[in-house]
Amino acid sequence: MQNSEKKLLVGIDIGGTKTAVLLSLAPPVVIARKEFPTRPAQGPDRAVGLIKSGIHEMLAEQGVDISTIARLGVSCGGPLDRIKGIIQRPPNLSTWDDVPIKAILENEFKAECLIENDANAGAVAEHRFGGGKGSTNMVFLTMGTGLGAGVITDGRLYRGSNDLAGEVGHLRLTKTGPMGHNKKGSAEGWASGGGMAQVAQEAVAAALKKKRPTLLSKLYKAGGPITAKDIGTAAKRGDKVALEVLEATGEKLGIVLAILVDLLNPDRIVIGGLAMRLGDLLLEPARRVIRREALELPAQTCQVVPAELGESIGDAAALCIAMGI
Amino acid sequence: MQNSEKKLLVGIDIGGTKTAVLLSLAPPVVIARKEFPTRPAQGPDRAVGLIKSGIHEMLAEQGVDISTIARLGVSCGGPLDRIKGIIQRPPNLSTWDDVPIKAILENEFKAECLIENDANAGAVAEHRFGGGKGSTNMVFLTMGTGLGAGVITDGRLYRGSNDLAGEVGHLRLTKTGPMGHNKKGSAEGWASGGGMAQVAQEAVAAALKKKRPTLLSKLYKAGGPITAKDIGTAAKRGDKVALEVLEATGEKLGIVLAILVDLLNPDRIVIGGLAMRLGDLLLEPARRVIRREALELPAQTCQVVPAELGESIGDAAALCIAMGI
Prior knowledge:
The structure is a homodimer. A five-stranded mixed sheet of chain A has the order 3-2-1-4-8, sandwiched between helices. In chain A, strands 11-10-9-14-15 form a five-stranded mixed sheet, sandwiched between helices. The first copy, chain A, is 42% helix and 22% strand. Chain A has helices at 44-62, 101-109, 118-129, 187-190, 193-209, 217-221, 228-236, 240-264, 274-278, 280-293, 296-301, 313-322; strands at residues 8-14, 18-24, 32-37, 69-76, 80-81, 86-88, 97-99, 112-117, 138-143, 147-153, 156-158, 179-180, 183-184, 268-273, 303-306. Chain A starts with 7 loop residues before the first strand and ends with a helix. Chain A is an alpha/beta fold. The A-B interface holds A 136-137, 151, 153-154, 156, 158-168, 170-172, 255, 258-260, 262-267, 293-295, 297-298, 301-302 and B 136-137, 151, 153-154, 156, 158-168, 170-172, 255, 258-260, 262-267, 293-295, 297-298, 301-302.
């Protein structure tokens, strides 16, 4: 790195499985990156040590010192105290009990450190660099094991009063139904990877009863879980039962999206996770429900697209935090 | 008026029944006000003429001329083109077909004129001067014949991509049910004055069948509509059937509020219209449903209160528009 001005951004993405540290001069371009397993079972000290040493090593490799750091950004799951910069025992980091990550890193690197939950930072990343580019009012839905959302209003991240805006997974769609977000019949129960797996179990059982053939029957008979990936693979091979499961999940997703359209009137809804892999198989039924359920003009205005950042969203999210969101 | 600096704000509140014009130096304090029937059946020209002459008269009475006007603000029902300042045939002003109110008033008074729909402006007014004072993230629900909302995020009005954010009345609560917002089983169908009247009709019919006495039976037998006001009056006199109707409506309202709490994590929900008159009879069942249905921390954080501006909300809304929202 030629220029030693104070303009280096440091991103730190702490996940339940792995942690990445990275450097950037112009996000989303990453000039150096290191990754290691987080191992939450071992407590936070080891990982925090590796974050510090990883950043020092990258700086040394670039031939610069900590004085070049403009700001650090930490992305991790909530709950967290964004103002004080404390990680408050997220479900995927259950030993990280009140870790003052901001103070630790500011003390080590003599630069400001900001911290934000990964769902909100991911929304900003997709808005700035991914499927939400050019939109003004955007909702970013993460559809993985769970279902969460980040909300951009008038171009800015909207966090809500407890940093908990966008908890779409908790909305009730039906009185009973698959469990998600600790609630039966919730949006997460119906329209997430976990929910889709629950629906698939029942669909395959019903198909076997009626002697309908399906590529998913082997998995079912072996007693193994049917994952969203299995359903997607079978659907792409034309399996009717798998296609019906995707259609049903897409329709439930559509009900959630219609609520977002009527309430937030966004110009873009960007869907990460499953939607990136399944694409229109999932999104077409959802779009159909939006046209049926939501107000006409807002429904016409809102584009529903898959996320674009894929695996790099964690890096981009951490850098957006370092940029000041 | 002593001071002839350019700092007079002019508010214009155009409703389906009446139109008000008013002057203010420091909203929400009104220093002069005139009101006349809008008479939409006669077309817009008469009313627009009265708006102009009304403002001129008030200025003359204050001993100042148009050079003292800082800005004019027009509040009226949507749809409207906020940027061009055109009223586009709102349902309650069906002859006001593309009225360029901004151009007309700017030409007449040589000052900037802003225009905004009354639901959004009402939300700003309650946030600035009413039940939302001091809140950061607020939803203002108008619960009258219909059910609409205005949304404040991080202290600012959030309009959405088509000025249509906050269309809570259009959300589907049930597959069938009372009609509202052109949709059966919608939030407006269940949780509005109109919806409550539909529910009351059925409740009174059922009560009569079971020979349960109710103060509402006379109205029902006379074939007249049972209004929200009738239900409120009977409930306050301890009528059990009326209380059950209020309870049921409050619970449906609670379902809507729980969605708002989970999605927007507001610190305040302010409810105008019926809630001002019915108070806790309506809001207590709603608060109970929020505690049951919404996420714990956001539910604890969000206060649900009646609106405070009452009849003066139209004036305050028009002045907020003149202030630049």
